[in-house]
Structure formats: C-alpha cells, structure tokens
Amino acid sequence: MKKSVNTFCLVSVFTLQILIGYSFVNYQPTVSYKCMIQMTNYTGEKAYVVVSLIDPDNNYVKTLYVQGDDEEWFPDLKDWWIFSNGSNEDIDGIAGATIGNGERNIISLGLDASQIDSGYKLRFESAVENQEYYPIDAEVPLNSETIKNKVEGKGYIRFIRMVPSK
C-alpha cells in the first residue's frame, strides 16, 4: 500500500511539473481570415497562385497556400520557388486546384496575431503555363485598419478581399 501511495505522489508531482512548464510557454493566438481571390478575364491555362507571408524586411517567412497541385509547374513561380525550393517547406495539404480566368476562389488563412500591425504582409504570386509570371501580383498589408480593404492585382488577379473568419 505504501509503495502505491509513493508511486502516486511521484506521478502527481511529475504531472504537476509538466503542467507548470507548459504554463510558461508563450503561445501566440492565431487569427483566421477568409480570403477571396478574384481572377481577371485572361486567355490560356488556369493560373497557379502562391500566398506567402512576408516579414517587415521583405523576406519570405512561410507559404500559407498554394493554388495548383501539379508540382511540375511550381518552378514557374520563380521567386517563391527560390525560397521554398520544394524542400524548405512541407506544402502537402495546402495545395488546391488551379483557378481559371474570371473565376474566384475563397481560401482560409491562419496567422499569428502578433503579425498583425507589425509590418508583415501577404504576397500573392501568379503564373500561367507559357505566359507571364507576376512575382508580386498583389500584396495585402497585415494592418488591422486596412486588411479588409479590396486590393487590386497587377496580373492574373483582379483583386483580393479578406474578412475575419468567425
């Protein structure tokens, strides 16, 4: 009986230490946005679009979404490909079907709340097979005052509109 009480006390102390340790970990709350990508009326194949998180120094941080699931065409998104190189990130599960001319798609994006109002932005790159590549088709500043504004694209993207998810 005494041995089981000692074992119980040791397990309880160990569990308490783990719980106290986790209480000191600084978890950043996440915020979710729905993002509508409206494409222009262009001719040709469907577009590949990559959404990347860019830091205040204009460096890639991570890939948030890839629109287009045929990896053969990923190198056509040249700036993003240099960053990701197909190996710097695991992009499984964030790739969706390509999007055609005049179409729209709504995607969900999750961000750390600390990235809002801190100089970060979302970069949208686009490419179409055997046509132009737009390294910065659109950029959305992660600013709480302007993030919901409509942002015009410069290439295959007509505009981007973001709204907080509920």
Features:
166 residues, Immunoglobulin-like, 17% helix, 39% strand
- The Rg value, from CA coordinates, equals 21 Å
> Low-confidence parts, pLDDT < 50 over ≥5 residues?
8-26
Shape: globular
Helical content class: 10-25%
What would CATH call the class?
Mainly Beta
Number of strands: 9
Using the 3D structure, state the CATH architecture: Sandwich
Percent strand equals 35-45%
Distance between the termini: 53 Å
Q: What's the story with the biggest beta sheet? A: 5 strands, mixed
Number of domains: 1
Discrete helix count: 2
The arrangement of helices and strands along the chain is HEEEHEEEEEE
**Helix/sheet category:** alpha+beta
Provide the spatial order of strands within the biggest beta sheet. Answer: 4-3-2-6-7
Description:
With 166 residues, this protein is of the alpha+beta class. It has one domain (28-164): Immunoglobulin-like, CATH 2.60.40. Helix content is 17%, strand content 39%. The chain has 2 helices and 9 strands, in the order H-E-E-E-H-E-E-E-E-E-E. The protein has helices at 2-23, 78-84, and strands at 30-39, 47-54, 60-67, 95-96, 104-112, 121-128, 133-141, 151-152, 157-164. Strands 4-3-2-6-7 form a 5-stranded mixed beta sheet, covered by helices on one side. Strands 5-1-9-8 form a 4-stranded antiparallel beta sheet, with no helix packed on it.
At a glance:
With 166 residues, the chain is α+β, with helices and mostly antiparallel strands. Helix content is 17%, strand content 39%.
Show the helix and strand layout.
Layout: H1 2-23, E1 30-39, E2 47-54, E3 60-67, H2 78-84, E4 95-96, E5 104-112, E6 121-128, E7 133-141, E8 151-152, E9 157-164
